[in-house]
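pinned: reference chain
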Amino acid sequence: MRRSIRLPGLAVAALTTLLLSGCAETSNWESLERGDCGYFTYPGGTEPWNLEQRDCADPEAALIVIRAASTEQCADHSFSASRIPQKGRTRYVCTSLNAQVGDCYNNIDHQYAHLYKLRKVPCSTPGSAEVTARTDTDDLTICGTTDPANSTTIRHKSGPVSFCLTHT
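pinned: its structure tokens
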């Protein structure tokens, strides 16, 4: 005797969407280009990281893409995002701060695996760090004699660009 299972129309549509999406790999990584701006989000579970794109002048555009998705690792791991697609090798998207002097970030320690938490915020936000210096070179000394306990140097080799952030 042959049994058939009937699925409601909604369940069939959901199953079809899941299968067509490659098991929910809905990342926009393959469409990203150098110069795109935004911030990373990570919905958790099986969803990959996604760059929530914004115009580079948008106050929410915390990061700028300096190299589109590639299997080559980024020179600056602290500001790169990676994911392992369902089939294939690890892919990397390389970004750097999209910052000018006077911009503030919520917690500059949101790097590496916590990069999806990094956001531009009003400078009055408790725990924020303000960009007090910027140069378009890889400069280890950008913060100069600034109090090291109260400042953070961010250097991007690929770009290159360096920032001094002072904790508010």
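why pinned: The chain has one helix and nine strands. Confidence is low (pLDDT under 50) at residues 1-25.
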